[in-house]
Design goal:
By secondary structure, the chain is mainly α. It has helices at 14-22, 27-30, 41-47, 65-73, 82-85, 94-97, 104-116, and strands at residues 52-53, 89-90. It is globular and about 60 Å long.
Length: 136
């Protein structure tokens, strides 16, 4: 996962747990980085992911995420990555990726959808509620 928080995604974070439950190898964790350690471009080239989960957060439309992603993906240093060569990018529903509530199960499904395709499609805005409806 490429995150605007450049030290997020390694061992010990919820995203790593999500990957494990989705049956996906988290390259950052697999490379030995722990959450809080900086992922450099050199490390990313060494990891050479088959898929990049890209950031989508635009800070309430105050940050140009499309420009950020374009510049990142066009970086000459990253053109040897399998994911870049094969154009395997996934733009997740971020509310599921950075989630540590009961809705984390949808984050697992979102990562599985990124890796394995439409078999794991889900409707927008899925949430689990622990509140029962009261009859009127």
């Amino acid at each position: 996962m490429i995150s605007l928080m450049t030290s997020y995604g390694g061992k010990g974070c919820t995203f790593d747990d999500i990957c494990q439950y989705a049956g996906v190898i988290n390259g950052v964790s697999d490379a030995g980085l722990h959450n809080g350690q900086l992922l450099t471009k050199e490390m990313l080239v060494d990891i050479n992911p088959d898929l990049l989960i890209m950031p989508v957060y635009n800070d309430h439309k105050t940050f140009d995420i499309e420009k950020y992603n374009k510049e990142f993906l066009e970086d000459p240093a990253l053109q040897t990555l399998n994911a870049v060569k094969e154009k395997r990018f996934f733009y997740p529903r971020e509310g599921y990726i950075y989630n540590s509530s009961q809705d984390i199960v949808f984050g697992v499904q979102e990562v599985a959808r990124a890796a394995y395709g439409s078999l794991f499609d889900q409707p927008e805005n899925c949430h689990i509620s622990v509140v029962a409806e009261v009859e009127k």
